[in-house]
Structure formats: C-alpha cells, structure tokens
Amino acid sequence: MPKTFFAFCIAVCILFAGACFAATPAVEILDYGLYKAQLDENARNAAQIELLKKTWRIPADPGALFGIRFVVGPASSDTQTPDVALSVRINHPQVEDLATGQKLSNYDVARTLIPGAPVVQLQRIEKDGPPSLGRWIFQVRQGEQVLAEREFEVYPPELRPDAASPGPRSSQTPGHAEAPASNPNFLAKDHARCRTLAPAVLDKDFTARTLVAEQTFGLHIPLFGDCCFLTLTDAAGDSYALVSARGQTLARFEAPSAKAKTRAVGFDDFNNDGIPEIVLLSEQTGVAGAGLPNRIYWSVVYSQSVYWTPIEAVDKDIARIRRYAELVERVRGARK
To answer: Rg of the Cα trace of the chain?
Structure first.
C-alpha cells in the first residue's frame, strides 16, 4: 500500500471501567462526519477531538478529518471480558499500489477495545495522496461479521452548495410532474433528461441497478440547483439517489424495507425550511404479512448544506397509508 495514501488513521479511546460481553458485541455509532483534533508530530495520534458537523457528505479539502465515533456496549452479563478484539475496515475508492500494481479498495485497522469506551476512527484527506473522491464506508467488524457501518461521499470542493455556480440555472418554469401529487415548486417541467441518463453515469455509482423511469424526476432544490431524483431497482428491491446535473451523487436513500417496490415518490416541504422532504410510498411483496412500508426522509439544513434523515416515529404513523394526499394530510395535521 502506498505510504502516502493512508498516512493517517486515528483511533482514540476514552477508557471506562471494564464491562460485560457476549460472543457477539453490540456496537452503536454515536456520531459521524467532519471532526477537528490536535495531532501529534507524527500525525498518528489525536487529542481534543471535536465533531464539527454531522454529515455523510465530505468535501475533499486537504487536511479534512472525517469518520465515526462508536461504542462497544455489553450485550449480556454472561461472561466477564475486559476488552474485545474488533477491526475497523475502511472501504475507499480504488487506487493502485505503484510498487506492486495491485488494486486496493480497503484496509483494516485492528483494535482491542474496552466495552463502554467511546472510540473515534478518523481518516484525513491528504493533499498529495491519490484521489479520494467517491464512496467511503467505515465498518466495525468482528471477523467477517459487520456489526455497524457508516457510508460517506467525498466530493470535489468546487461542487459544494456554497461554491459559485458553474453556469446559469435552468429557465424552465416549474410545473406538475406526471406521477406524484407533490409540491410543484421543486419539480422540473421536463423529466426526460433524468429518465435518459447515460449508462456511464449510472454505472459509476449504481452498478447492476436499473433505472425505474416512471419514478425518476427532475428537481430544482435550493442549495443544490437542478438535479435528478433516481429510483433504482435490482433483485434486492428498490433504492434511491439524488444526483446533480453533473452526475455527482448528492444523497442516497434506502427503501423502507427489503424487497420493497415503489408505488409513488413525492417531494414536499413539511418542516418549512425551503428544502423538500423525500416521501416514499412502497409496497413489500413476497414477504409474509406484506404491507405498505412508507417512509419520509426529512431535510436538515446545516451550514449551507443539506442531508436527509428518517424519523422512526413518523414512519410508523404513516406505514399503512396508501394515498399520497392522505399521507400529506396526516403529516401536516400532526405538525400543527
């Protein structure tokens, strides 16, 4: 592995008293995103670690630190064990080892952890290192079993929402889309550009997934500009993504449950922040007790950026609603 590629990997433990463990420990990710820290002269250890911003989108600024803070919690009181051997696997955009020609796409950090002790695992963007743009996944593992994971998207700084726009916005007048009865302020008049995305754009980030054209829409979202909401499908079910006009992945969304098939997609601003919530109406098929596992991804605006997150209590409340208009009425009524 090139020395410059992963020149920096931090792991910090705040030690508590010993705790109890079963064979498979429980792991909880406490927070994630961009951090700041005081580094030693070798850039190997850190102190005064502070979460700057909880986000999965990381600008590729040299020196930026991103990662996860997690805790290994006791699963039972059957066996007393003072620590536990785990590893953190960092899956990263593929690079080539110049010495061997080997293609590298992950590396592992072995850890011996004390139950109940918060642990921070960070990665630094290196100024002179190989390209870091793309998808990163931090996985806490016991052997080959993944106990917890968090995905990040490292993107070029010039594509950040507060950067200067590379060109004029679309002059199209927003109008109603064909399928969802959602807020027309966010919908483009013509969805053809998004529904005919070049295979090269899809293959870059969504290998082996097929675009569902009738549930794919052109949007205009403040801070992001013109973009496309994609509904994708494969044997495992449906998934979703928000892609910029340049083909850069801005956000990913999973279906409410496995094997879920999309019935409708909508975009409405329920929390009045000027950014649409993503509403997914889906149906679970081929599963005992199949139903209507709907979901809303709520927008969170932070420092001129946006991310979306579900709220479990709301999803439970709307789980059996079939019609989009009824769902909107339920949600708006609950927020009054």
So the answer is: 22
Confidence of residue 44 (pLDDT cuts 50, 70, 90): low
* One-letter amino acid for residue 111 of the chain: R
Distance CA 242, CA 293 (A): 21
| Cα–Cα distance measured from residue 134 to residue 92, given in angstroms and rounded to the nearest whole number | 8
User: For the stretch 126-144, what's the b/e string if a residue is b when 16 or more beta carbons lie within 10 angstroms of its beta carbon?
Assistant: beebbebebebebbbbbee
pTM greater than the 0.70 cutoff = no
**What is the three-class DSSP state of 173?**
coil
CB 211 within 8 A of CB 217: no
Residue 106 bridge partners (DSSP) = 91
Q: Which pair of tokens denotes residue 31?
A: 């927070």
Counting Cβ atoms within 10 Å, is residue 110 exposed (0-12), middle (13-18) or buried (19+)?
exposed
Mean pLDDT over residues 115-119, rounded?
87
Q: Give the chain's domains with CATH numbers.
A: 9-158 (2.60.40.2390), 172-334 (no CATH)
| DSSP H or E stretch at residue 72 | strand 65-73
Q: What Å distances lie between residue 202 and 156, 195, 205, 323, CA to CA?
A: 19, 11, 6, 30
